[in-house]
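Narrative summary of target 7.
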Amino acid sequence: MINLELYKIFVFVAKEGNITKASEKLNISQPAVTKHIKNLEEQLGVTLFKRNKYGMELTDKGRELFSEVEEPIIKIYNAERKFTSIRNIRLGSHVTMLSRMFGKCIAEYYKLNPTSQIEVTNETFNDMLNMLENQKLDIVLSKKVDESVYNTNKIEFIKLGLLHDIFVINTNSKYKDKVFNKEQLSKEKIYTPKRTSITTINLMKELNLTDGMENIKNITYTTMLGILKTEDSIGLITKEYIKDELKENKLAILNTDFEFEPMEFGIYINKENKFKELKDLIKIMKNEFLQV
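Modeled conformation, tokenized:
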């Protein structure tokens, strides 16, 4: 008997090229995804993927199978979403904002809608807004950007609060008692999020830096936190993401003679999406962040 679930998982891993991203979209564990892929390979008697430094790459047999099953599996998946009485939510967000700020909201949502699922997508902001406009996503969590970059007739921004970017160091840093100006900082090695992040873009503008400068090191937030706790260096990060580390004195704020302008953060939604589960999630997020 054909197990369509195995083929669905195969298609998502093939499209994402990554076990972690596929598991997030399917809302099942990474070990389960790996096990299902292995089961399908054993069932067919072929190797479908090979690992590379970026994740999972299709073999020749894998590409052949993918070309055969992608279209029908995606049609079945979309039909399932369309006709099920419980709607899943397709959510776009970078991982740090979701985990550091919205974990409680997601937990509350699952208490209210235990049979619904939140499928997470982590792409560039512009890609996520494009997916939202085309109803491939239902909601995007992000810092606010200029309205000129999206279609305001289709997309609405709901403000939840303010975020503050800060320079951070470890608590034993030689920089701890110094006050830096912009010129001094522009000569220091600074760890920042990826090049396309709003935080990094604002830094480049504030310090009048050009793209590709050797002293600006783009890394993930997780890697940055690890480096800052062990290396005497400077990082740029959103204060609200590291409130626990600051409270526990694992990191310290670098003193500067200037501050970044606070940034609004909130929810982007497609105005045509008004189903119950999405309304529930938005209400929970408003209650969490807009408390008086």
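The CA atoms of residues 178 and 255 lie 7 Å apart.
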